[in-house]
Design brief:
two-stranded antiparallel sheet, 4 strands, globular
Length: 803
């Protein structure tokens, strides 16, 4: 009893578990039905069971030890439809709301300064970006909805039809809202179109032009010339072809930049990567992928930097952005593709736009983090030097936050490459598209060859951007012209020599292929047969062993675990999750995680969400055990720590799709393949954070423990682990997110979780609603776990006195 008094949270957790298992045992007649995927919904649809029973019947069932059906699975529930009204009255209300918010802010901020309204507005005009949407929502949506609910005819919709509501709304915005007259050159007359459609299509054309422009610099072509002339002019002037850069020029330029930024090691990596890609005949798709990244990454950087600066200057903006960033960074990759297809079409531009949306959030976070880390003394020095707001930001704050911002650039580049394969689902060309075709045809040898090319590009760009971030700039050096412009001079020399070699190659090679200019796609050396024979050898040698392991894992581990998750009634799941939330963070945390869970339960994919949770849970448990074990062993030695962190850095640069190739090769298209890919991918953050957490424990505390007579195991258990645990738990948080991402990607090789429906939404003309809602379900699973871990880690840090 004394132990329980000293550990009240342990007692609370025990009570939660007892209630949870009691509720689990009360499924009764529904037990066998809910074990079947979608079994409960199918029985309700066929009329064999009721979706909901009355109060008296529910009370009777509970007294008899049987949960009523609405507590086993939530039925299809309705909500009052919101109403929009853009008439003149509500436009005036929206305008008055905006002016009222501005006036309130003006009164609050000018009590002491007594600034004139025009002076105050010049300094605070950016508030309009928040107040205008707020006024529109209040005037056009909230007020008309409330008036309709109280005085009009109320209509209802089902939560299960939310996807169709989103589809209809998107179609209305895209094709009917805000009609305008647009001149159509094909019919030589004006035609009616929606403004949103014209804006999105115009933006798409701009992005596509930028991609094709960079692609033709690297590979050559005529589309850029045609864009400024016409196809007729181009046909009449056969000489009007944009020549691509020889591969030797691009390779030598990469080697030069690598050497200047980080020395011989990065230069060797650049040489190996570019020569490998060219020799293996993958130069053309590699440059298509690179052109895609070179457009998406700068736009993501500009957007992320701008929004990060805005969030730094406005607490309101930061408050609005943070939950949006949380959702954006936990949404699976596929969920971005469906709305992009609807609004921007398919092709390279659509893939680039989806990539921009996916890659911008980490840039915003790191920009905001870097600006917040600038010391007040530096800011004061800038202000005392007479800087205005713009000069303070551009000349003081951003240069001081340079390293964090450039690490943000590194993250942007990595996210762009991670999307390279995913974006191929909506028509993006390059290595990702070819890799997807190879996987669909189960050509493992070709997939491995392409995967190596993607990995080499990712590793090189990762090391290059990190070297740029760590490169110190000497702002006071008085250098000669050649030294100041060494990059430009070196590139000019490389371009001259490379062009000369390409010209000589026209005389040296007689087979019609100039190997010093460009090796055509699939005309170089190939190792596909080598890799394929290796795959065949592995199958012939280890087939029975692998199949035995596969069968054991599925039958004895995965199926029982999946059954246990599916057997959880809704009320039991809420009890467990909200109970844990209450124990960790009180009523607020219980309501937050309960809210996330409620959204999932109200939609029609509850069973699929449970299957997703089961797969992610298995991956997180195994990844956490492996990561903490390996990290703890490596943290004992400085050399081992450096090696394992280098391995984690390397594996973390791999695009997530790459992990599917070896597991398909070993285990075929099964749940085992997906879960092993999940484990490998999700072990990286668990290992990294364990090493970093244990190595950050002060040496003085370790020495004090040793002098107290503890052995190594006792020191690890009693000193190092308790202090490092908050950091390790943050790594486990990342492990959950990584596991969820890979589970959804695993739908490509056959799973029956939420990812399968997200993948189906890509081929559905009305899939935008399904794609967004399914993505939110996955995001809310991740956010619920994230909230619990972050809350616990924050409390633990405060208890230990760790900043």
């Amino acid at each position: 009893m004394e132990f329980l008094k000293n550990n009240p949270k342990l007692l609370q957790f025990g009570i939660v578990l007892i209630v949870f298992f009691i509720l689990m045992s009360m499924t009764g007649e529904y037990h066998d039905i809910i074990l079947l995927r979608d079994g409960f919904a199918n029985k309700v649809k066929s009329g064999e069971i009721d979706a909901i029973v009355g109060f008296s019947e529910s009370f009777r069932m509970i007294l008899s030890g049987q949960l009523p059906p609405q507590l086993v699975r939530l039925p299809e529930l309705n909500f009052f439809n919101p109403v929009t009204d853009t008439s003149i009255v509500f436009k005036l209300i929206a305008l008055l709301t905006i002016l009222g918010l501005l006036f309130r802010k003006f009164l609050l901020t000018t009590k002491e300064t007594r600034d004139l309204p025009i002076v105050w507005f010049k300094q605070n005009w950016t508030k309009l970006f928040v107040y205008i949407p707020a006024g529109i929502i209040v005037g056009f949506l909230i007020l008309p909805t409330l008036l309709n609910w109280f005085f009009g005819d109320i209509t209802t919709s089902s939560f299960w039809t939310m996807n169709q509501i989103i589809n209809d709304s998107a179609e209305f915005v895209m094709y009917e809202w805000w009609p305008v007259e647009i001149y159509d050159p094909d019919i030589e007359d004006y035609d009616e179109s929606a403004m949103v459609k014209e804006i999105t299509r115009g933006f798409s054309r701009s992005i596509l032009f930028a991609i094709e422009f960079i692609r033709e610099i690297l590979l050559g072509g005529i589309k850029t010339i045609v864009a400024f002339t016409s196809w007729e002019w181009s046909d009449a002037n056969e000489w009007a072809v944009w020549p691509g850069l020889p591969w030797t020029v691009v390779s030598a330029s990469a080697i030069m930049i690598g050497y200047f930024l980080s020395g011989r090691g990065l230069a060797i990596l650049a040489a190996f990567s570019t020569i490998y890609i060219s020799v293996f005949g993958q130069w053309e798709p590699a440059m298509e992928t690179l052109s895609f990244v070179l457009v998406a990454a700068p736009i993501s950087f500009i957007l992320g930097l701008s929004l990060g600066v805005w969030a730094y200057k406005s607490k309101t903006t930061e408050t609005v952005l943070m939950p949006l960033l949380n959702v954006a960074q936990t949404m699976p990759h596929f969920s971005y593709l469906v709305p992009v297809m609807v609004f921007f079409g398919v092709g390279d531009h659509a893939g680039a736009i989806a990539t921009i949306i996916f890659a911008t959030p980490p840039m915003i976070r790191l920009t905001l983090l870097g600006l917040k880390k600038v010391s007040p003394e530096v800011i004061d020095a800038g202000m005392m030097s007479g800087c205005n707001n713009f000069q303070l930001m551009s000349k003081v704050l951003i240069p001081s936050a340079r390293r964090d911002i450039l690490i943000g650039v590194n993250q942007v580049i990595m996210q762009c490459l991670a999307m390279a394969v995913i974006a191929s689902f909506i028509g993006a060309k390059g290595l990702g598209f070819n890799l997807l075709l190879a996987l669909n045809q189960l050509k493992i040898g070709q997939a491995l060859e392409l995967g190596i090319c993607i990995v080499l590009i990712a590793v090189f760009l990762d090391k290059l951007s990190l070297a740029w971030a760590n490169k110190q700039t000497d702002y006071f050096a008085d250098l000669p012209f050649i030294e100041r412009h060494k990059y430009a001079v070196s590139f000019a020399a490389i371009l001259f020599v490379g062009t000369l070699l390409a010209y000589l190659g026209t005389f040296l090679f007689s087979d019609g292929i100039n190997y010093l200019y460009m090796i055509p796609h699939n005309k170089g050396y190939t190792s596909q047969l080598f890799w394929q024979s290796g795959v065949d050898w592995i199958w012939d040698t280890f087939f029975f062993s692998l199949q035995g392991f596969n069968t054991w894992l599925i039958q004895d581990v995965l199926i029982p675990m999946k059954t246990a998750y599916l057997s959880m009634p809704v009320i039991a799941t809420f009890t467990l999750v909200m109970g844990v939330g209450y124990i960790i963070g009180g009523i607020r945390s219980a309501l937050v995680v309960g809210g996330f869970l409620l959204v999932i339960a109200l939609l029609q994919w509850w069973e699929r969400a449970l299957i997703t949770a089961y797969m992610a849970s298995f991956g997180v448990i195994v990844s956490g055990l492996i990561g903490i074990t390996v990290g703890s062993l490596c943290a004992r030695n400085k050399i081992a720590s450096k090696i394992i962190l280098l391995v984690c850095d390397t594996f973390q640069t791999f695009p997530s799709f790459i992990y599917l190739i070896p597991v398909i090769m070993l285990f075929g298209v099964t749940d085992t393949s997906v879960l092993i890919a999940v484990i490998v991918y999700a072990t990286i953050p668990a290992t990294r954070y364990t090493v970093e957490g244990l190595t950050s424990v002060p040496q003085a505390l370790q020495d004090a423990g040793s002098m107290s007579g503890v052995n190594r195991m006792q020191r690890w258990l009693k000193i190092e682990m308790p202090l490092a645990l908050p950091h390790i738990m943050l790594g486990l948080n990342q492990t959950v997110v990584f596991a969820l991402f890979m589970v959804i990607i695993g739908a490509m090789i056959g799973t029956d979780d939420l990812g399968q429906f997200i993948l189906k939404a890509l081929s559905d003309k009305q899939g935008i609603g399904n794609g967004l809602l399914l993505g939110l379900c996955v995001a809310f699973i991740g956010l619920a776990v994230d909230h619990l871990i972050q809350t616990w880690a924050t409390q633990r840090r405060k208890l230990l006195g760790i900043d």
